[in-house]
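== Sequence entry ==
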Amino acid sequence: MSNEIRAAREARGWTSDQLNHELCRAAAELKIRIARPTSLRILISRWENGASSPDERYQRLLGRAFGLPLQALGFVDEGQAKAGVALPSAVQVRGTDVSGAMLDYFRQQHGQHARMDNVAGPGFVLGTVATQVEQLRRLAQQSPAEIVQVTARFAELAGWLCQDSGDHAGALRYTDESIDLAESAGDVALAAYNTMRKSNVLTSMREDQRAAVTARRAATMAEREAPDLLPVCLRQVAVSEAHLRREGPGREALDRALSLVDGGAGGHPYSAYCTTTYLEMEGALCSLVLGNPGAAVDACQRALDGWPVGLNRDQALCLTRLAAAHLEQHDLDEACRAALRAVELVAQAPSARTLHMLRVIGRRVMPLKDAKAVRELREALATVA
C-alpha cells in the first residue's frame, strides 16, 4: 500500500506538500475534518514509508485526491472486507487452468492499459497492471508458453509505467523479469524488444555505457530474428550513443531507422508507436543532448505537424523538448508558448518525464520572471508541477 501511494503521487509529479494540499482540498469538498497541514505532512511520510496505514477517512480522501479507486491504492473497500472479498492481488489462481478465453482476456487488458497510458498517463493503470503481473506470475508457474509470453508483456508494461512514474529501480526489475520470461517462452522478438526497453531504462538511470551495449545487443537480436523491430531498436541505439557524445554512430542509427520506417518496415505490434513522428521526436532528444538546438527545433516541428490524435502523453513530452530547444536559442516567447501547450496536455496525461522537463524549463526562465510570457507560464506550471 505504501508503494501505491508513493507511485500515485510520483506519477502526477506531486511533491509531498502538493499531496498535502490536495488532501486538504478533498477534505473541504467532502466536509471531512482532518489533521492540520503540519501534522498531515508527517502522516504522509509515515504512510509512504510503511510505518502506518491511513484509516478509512484518509483512504477516502486519498482516493478523491488521486481520482483512483481504493483498490488501485492498495486499500480494501470496507464493504468488501466485511463480505470477505479479497483484493485481486490476494486471489489464489495457482490451480486455475489457463484457457483460450483467459489468454484473450489478459491480451485485451494489456491493449486497454497501453491505450489508457497514452491518453491519461501511468498513474491510472500502474496499480492494476502490477496486480495483474502478480496473478500472471502464478499462472505462469504452470509453464504453458502462451501465458509465460503474456506475463512477459505485462512485466514489460509494468516496467514502462514505473519508468514514466520516475521509479527507475522498479522499472529495471520488471524489465529484467520481462526479458527472462520472453526467453523462457521462446519469443525471440519479445526478448529483443524487452532488451531494447532495458537499454532505455538504463539511459534514464544515466548508466550510459551499459545502455549503449544493451541497445546494440537488442538491435543485433532484432536484425537477426525480428526485422520489424529493428527501427525501434535503432532509435534506442541513437539515444544511447548521443548520451555518450558519439554523434556519428547515433546519427547513422537514427537515419537508418527513419529510412526503414519510411520504406514500410516496422509495424510490429510490439512497436506500433514507432512511427516517423516518434522517431523525429527522439531525434530531437539526441540533438538536445548533443547541443544542437536548431536541429531539435526542426525535428520537433516536423513531429508535431503530423502528430497522431490521442497520443497526449508523448505529444506533451515533444512540446517540452521543443520548449527546451527554443530556450537554448534564447527564444523566450516561443519556449513559453510550447511549454504552455505541454502544460495543457500533461494535466490530462501526467508523466514524470514531462513534468521533470517542465520543472527544468520553469527554473531556467525564473531570472526573466517579469516577462509576460514567463508570468503566464509560471502560473500554469503551479497547477501541475
About this structure: The chain is about 70% helix and 0% strand. Residues 78-95 have pLDDT under 50 and may be disordered.
